[in-house]
Amino acid sequence: MKTITMKFGGTSVGSPEAISNVIDIVKTERQAGNRVVVIVSAMAGVTDMLLNSVKAAVAGSKWGYLSTAEKLRERHEDALNILVPPGKLREKTFDQVTALLSEYTEICHAVSILGENTARVSDAIVAYGERLSSRVVAAALKSRGVDALAYDAGEFLITDERFQGANPIWEETQARVDAKLLPALAQGITPIITGFIGATRNGAITTLGRGGSDYSGAIFAAASNSDELIIWTDVDGVMTTDPRVDKRARVLPYVSYQEIGELAFYGAKVLHPKTVQPVLDKGIPIWVRNTFNPSFAGTLIRENGEPTATVIKAVTSIRNISLLTVSGKGMIGVPGIAGRTFLATARAGASILMISQSSSEQSFCFLVTEGTAQNVKDAIEGELSAEIDSRDIERVEVLDDVVIITAVGAGMRGTPGVAGRVFSVMGENRINVIAIAQGSSECSISFVVSEADLERSVIKLHDLALESVVEG
Ligand code: ADP
Ligand code: ASP
Ligand code: MG
């Protein structure tokens, strides 16, 4: 008997038809005699709706959250009406939906009166998306004969207090999984657990960051010692590039943990960047599969990906990036400028996505997300004010509307000429490359172009990845 953790994304639970597929998938696995831990996202679009309603509430608008509550009620009740036959189970789940939505309305009401929102309050509010979907999916499964039970993840997943980007506290999470989740599994229960959310030791709801239910899946896969983690989503697997950018994207049958780490970090939305971390040590394989095409095998992510004949396996991009450049002739040979700059960046609460320095040491540049760039600039100017006054540093500049393009493939390691090919393709297509970086893992090459060149860069680079994809 195997234990399998399955995470279903927003589109996969986004409509009654999609939830029907979820039921078939879970039932098939149960009938094969396996234990299943199910992690669910909010129904597609719900997380955005909830976050927008908080913004409106802060601005004093009641209409925003009242209409959101109504829309959410309709959407979840419609699903229940289609998926669960009339009777006690349907009524009980309606009551749960009503209770959750009235709590949601009360919290939003408080926010609208105070005119203030905190990360903690925002997490409590946005969590209703997953709390609602988990009840609906559990009821739908129950009505089709699976002994399913909905759980709020905070019962097991204990995190630190970094609201909106919380980290698990492993020992406590493991202890709770051992004490409560494993016995439920042993009794034949199929737990339906909210993705994306956890709770602090004091019971305050936290979230793991946008897209974080993949990470929840990995956390529960590791803590329940699962044999497999399956990420059920709305595409056939991890592809050679985002199919929304280039329709020619093909499914990669195998990807290594390291490759998926780079792909996810550099923008492949198909998997949250932290997903690999919990399963890596235990060597739990991750499958990425399509809820709407369940007979297709999907992508297998494991320790060693299969080498492909092409060294560039996939191409990703990240939008909404700003490039910061610190420059000045007085920097040459002066130790510590870069270190102080990066510390100031961290104090401004921004993380650095990529760094590049010219060998003359007269300038270096790095990339942060657009929304944080101005704060970072201010923090750096504060930190280096003496050097700026003495003109050793001439400028701290921000360039907006740039994007990072990344080519990923473990086969690049030790293969000469890959960077040459990448940049000659850019040159041949007259795409201006603003900055370049290659990680020491040699598993990826990243460079910066202006936002207007994004599609063209991805498509031209994708040609190289498509040249010799191994068929799945
Ligand atoms: P879910 O709600 O299931 O978590 P997401 O929208 O978060 O789904 O992620 C799936 C989406 O990721 C796909 O619909 C696709 O547009 C996008 N995507 C971006 N890059 C890739 C890639 N390299 N391979 C597959 N999908 C990708
Ligand atoms: N519902 C959350 C989001 O939209 C988490 C997730 O779907 O992974 O960000
Ligand atoms: Mg996702």
The main sheet comes to: 8 strands, mixed
Class per helix and strand makeup: alpha/beta
Count of helical stretches: 15
Proportion in helices: 40-55%
Word description of this protein:
By secondary structure, this protein is an alpha/beta fold. It folds into two domains: 3-234, Acetylglutamate kinase-like (Carbamate kinase); 314-471, VC0802-like (2-Layer Sandwich). It contains 15 helices and 16 strands. A hairpin with a 5-residue loop joins strand 15 and strand 16. It starts with a strand and ends in a 6-residue tail after the last helix. It binds adenosine-5'-diphosphate, aspartic acid (ASP) and magnesium ion. Residues 9-12, 41, 211, 233-235, 238-239, 241-244, 268-270, 314 line the site of adenosine-5'-diphosphate (ADP). Residues 9-10, 41-42, 47, 129, 195-196, 210-213 line the site of aspartic acid.
How would the blueprint of this fold be written?
Elements lengths: L2 E6 L7 H16 L3 E6 L5 H13 L3 H22 L4 H27 L4 H8 L1 H16 L4 E4 L18 H17 L3 E5 L2 E3 L5 E3 L5 H11 L4 E6 L20 E3 H9 L10 H5 L5 E5 L8 E4 L11 E14 L9 H11 L6 E4 L5 E7 L3 H11 L1 H5 L5 E14 L9 H11 L6 E4 L5 E7 L3 H13 L6
Parallel strand pairs: 1-2, 1-7, 2-4, 3-4, 7-9, 8-10
Antiparallel strand pairs: 5-6, 9-10, 11-13, 11-14, 12-13, 14-16, 15-16
The chain binds adenosine-5'-diphosphate (ADP), aspartic acid and magnesium ion.
Keyword list:
6-stranded antiparallel β-sheet, 8-stranded mixed β-sheet, VC0802-like, binds aspartic acid, 472 residues, Carbamate kinase, binds magnesium ion, 2 domains, binds adenosine-5'-diphosphate, globular, alpha/beta
